[in-house]
Specification:
The protein is an all-alpha fold. It is about 60% helix and about 0% strand. The chain is globular.
Length: about 190
């Protein structure tokens, strides 16, 4: 094989690779960078998680936050509050989601996602208060799970730049939307 045909084959392979990357990026842009695969959770856990998030962050897309949770589980964000003897997030969150379903079945005989919003709130309140029934909560305190899970959801909720802008930490990139003066938002007075 001569050098020209080797070079041509290399360029063809490079072009195919760039096309594949371009297609993948185009697909991700069209889907608003939504995730297609789960790293830490089963589909059942994802359904429960989305239902829990729906009650914790009403009005937000629970699937987007569930995607964030899948990405963020096990990542150090904010202050680490792991109690001695407690499992890490990769074990804690799936176990806690099983506990949510167990408590739902104890109270209402159904999975959490099958409950009415008011019933879901009762289940989550008992978990938050540390009084939820179930064998899972004998392994981990329900209020500990709730606090760790809710904190991670809040990280996801406010991780979007538009949310930071809305609460005044960042200025909007749209000059017509800027209500702050030209000073840096980090300027110390």
């Amino acid at each position: 094989m001569d050098e020209g045909s080797t070079n041509s084959a290399g360029k063809k392979k490079e072009t195919q690779g760039a096309t594949a990357i371009g297609s993948e990026m185009e697909q991700r842009v069209r889907s608003h960078f939504s995730r297609y695969t789960l790293t830490h959770y089963t589909v059942t856990e994802l359904i429960t998680m989305s239902s829990v998030i729906e009650r914790m962050a009403p009005g937000k897309n629970p699937m987007d936050l569930a995607g964030f949770m899948d990405w963020a589980t096990g990542r150090l964000l904010g202050r680490l509050e792991q109690l001695p003897g407690m499992p890490n997030e990769s074990e804690l969150f799936p176990l806690g989601l099983m506990g949510v379903n167990e408590t739902s079945k104890n109270y209402y005989g159904h999975q959490f996602h099958e409950l009415a919003p008011a019933q879901r709130d009762v289940v989550l309140r008992s978990i938050e208060d540390g009084v939820a029934p179930g064998s899972i909560w004998q392994q981990i305190p329900s209020d500990y799970f709730y606090r760790r899970f809710y904190t991670k959801v809040l990280h996801g909720l406010f991780a979007e730049q538009k949310e930071w802008t809305r609460i005044g930490i960042l200025r909007s990139p749209d000059p017509t939307d800027r209500k702050r003066d030209s000073q840096s938002f980090l300027q110390i007075t």
